[in-house]
Design goal:
By secondary structure, the chain is mainly α. Helices cover about 70% and strands about 5% of the residues. It has helices at about 5-20, 25-35, 35-65, 95-105, 105-120, 130-140, 145-160, 165-170, 175-190, 195-230; strands at about 70-75, 80, 85, 90-95. A two-stranded antiparallel ribbon has the order 1-4. Helix 3 (about 35-65) packs antiparallel against helix 4 (about 95-105) and helix 5 (about 105-120) packs antiparallel against helix 7 (about 145-160).
Length: about 230
């Protein structure tokens, strides 16, 4: 079972991003629209960094897959006539369906990488992986670095990760990636310890990078759900 733990972590983290945190930004924007000027300003401060990271993820993925970039808006919030919320946009013409799915998942790299980088910089010992990050945060929860990392990840967790529309466009690709991670762990389970560590290294790295983002997305989703139930 321990051989498959990195793959299980990756699958669980993808599920948190897909089902818990993907609608948080739109809900926060809708709340700030009903607030006063100070509330709207605070909402923009919370949303803008994550939205910019999100759109940069789309831009990088689209460029890497050879798409034709037509328009880039890193942060321009607006609400459509149907009530849908759009906070930014990267419009592009992908070369193929698969390239379009990959570009849709660009924030799956940019958002978690931004969270992970914040944790590496702010929380001592976080580089060793999800377990070390959790242990360091629990050992000194009130440390300035831990509090700053939580604040950064919370802000990014609201808006930096793939949206519901992104996951719809991506189709089965995220879950195929999780399946590939499980396949790698299955191969490693029958290999010598040294070879198994080398094989599972990319999967363990993916689990480490996704961990802060998944926790932030889960917390954002639970917070909005609690607010909806309490209202």
């Amino acid at each position: 079972m321990s051989a498959f733990l990195p793959a299980l972590l990756v699958a669980g983290e993808l599920a948190c991003l897909a089902f818990a945190g993907s609608g948080a930004a739109g809900r926060l924007y809708a709340l700030t629209r009903r607030a006063g000027p100070a509330g709207r300003a605070a909402g923009h401060l919370l949303l803008a960094p994550g939205v910019a990271v999100h759109e940069l993820g789309h831009l990088a993925a689209a460029a890497l897959t050879g798409a034709k970039i037509e328009r880039v808006e890193l942060y321009r919030p607006r609400q459509g006539r149907d009530g849908s919320v759009r906070l930014g946009a990267v419009e592009y013409r992908p070369r193929s369906v698969l390239a379009g799915q990959a570009a849709a998942l660009g924030p799956l790299a940019s958002g978690p990488l931004a969270c992970w980088a914040a944790c590496l910089i702010l929380v001592p010992g976080a580089a060793a992986g999800p377990g070390a990050l959790a242990a360091a945060a629990l050992a000194a929860p009130a440390a300035p670095g831990t509090l700053a990392a939580v604040a950064v990840c919370a802000a990014l967790g609201i808006s930096a990760f793939p949206s519901r529309q992104d996951f719809r466009v991506a189709g089965p690709l995220p879950w195929l990636l999780a399946g590939a991670a499980a396949g790698v762990c299955a191969l490693a389970s029958g290999a010598p310890a040294h070879d198994a560590a080398a094989l599972t290294g990319p999967v363990r790295l993916a689990a480490a990078v996704l961990a802060p983002a998944a926790l932030a997305a889960l917390a954002a989703g639970l917070a909005f759900r609690a607010g909806r139930l309490g209202s």
